[in-house]
Amino acid sequence: EMCIRDRVNAEIKTAVDLVKEKTQTELEAVKKVNAPVFNFLQRKIIDPNNKNTYKMLAKGFPGSMQTASGHVVFDIDKIEAFHNKGKKVIFVTESLYGQKYAALRFADGVIVQRGGATSKNSILLRDLGKASVLSCYDLEIQADLKSCTFATHQINEGDVLTVEGSTGEIYEAEIPLIDAEIPQEYEQLMSWVDSYKKMKVMAMADNPKEFALGKLLGAEGIGLCKTEQMLNDPVRMKHMRKAVLLDKPDEWKKELDELAHYHKEDFKALFKIMNGLPCIFRIIDPPLNSFFPSDKEGQIKLAEELNLPIELIEKQYSKFAEYNPSLGLRGSRLAVMYPELVSMQAKALFMAALECIEEGFQPLPCLELPMISTCLLYTSPSPRDQRGSRMPSSA
Questions:
Q1: CB half-sphere exposure, 233, CA atoms < 13 A
Q2: Mean pLDDT of each 10-residue bin along the chain, 395 residues long
Q3: Which pairs count as long-range contacts for 367-370, CB under 8 Å and 24+ apart, including other chains?
Q4: Which residue in 31, 66, 249, 294 has the most C-beta neighbors within 10 A?
Q5: How far apart are CA 384 and CA 378, in angstroms?
Q6: Distance between CA 55 and CA 173 in Å, rounded?
């Protein structure tokens, strides 16, 4: 069976060869190549030479283009703990509905018993570049026993699975992954695309590796950099959490200074890669409660990790909690409540731009303020240390 990589390469090569043989025009070649094939050029895939030596446990609905191996976890609040130990994680769940975005970010793959590709969290998983298999009806979960079965094969928490999101296939054990190959004909085909295109194509990326890949594949800038994704590293997440939990200005300012350093370095890397191309950065957007565990056990562990009273975390989380996160403390509303977060990001962004200019680069930064519904949201309250409170007087 021809693997997906070979099919993609063959489609691109055939389109170019037919033009060389004068059996079709350049425009016809561009139109005949299916746009989704380009997604496979930037993903890791199962080595086709090893795939048949592993047992396929089940097959569900393809949820993404990615492939990942990892340890099985049934409790969403354990995902980050596994991640912090350096382990890859495959989260197995009955449904993605209501699952916490903050925890899902640390999973490498997800297997869902019920649910389709158009649910909010399914879309977010694809956005995050996570391998996902949806609507896996051969899956039976016994979460209280920390186990599941695929048909008659039992899998326990901590066992290793490989998830191939592009086919919906689930394999036992870890399968070696390889980078997808970009065929030689790719650049020729894309040069024809450039000659006929009517709009620019920009990349969505949030780390230097993705910036470089976007540039390699011909992106004409960064259309969206989700700055909250830059906080996925456990060390950065720790600073973010303490910045919004601590009350004393000298304490939370110290945490913001650490975050500013990380942001600036990432921004500089992006500006150097995308030299002379526009880059759009979105300020922290997810609801604030998504950065914190919702369960008692998770909050106790977080209190120990941050060396803070559990009462403080419980009190603050109760303020952050949202029934409908899409309408809650996020985006521009988060900027009103915590203006220092936006100030930190803006300062890091423009300091990075200035330093790049001094080094001879041409940065073109743009700052996006999400979820603006009224002009009043452009008006920033006084900084937190001047208000003497986390809440503006008008709140």
A1: 12
A2: 70 94 95 80 78 89 91 90 90 85 85 85 81 92 89 92 92 87 88 90 89 88 91 87 88 93 95 96 81 82 91 86 71 82 90 97 92 71 46 33
A3: 367/280, 367/281, 367/283, 368/224, 368/280, 368/281, 368/282, 368/283, 369/283, 369/331, 369/332, 369/335, 369/342, 370/282, 370/283, 370/285, 370/330, 370/331, 370/332
A4: 66
A5: 17
A6: 8
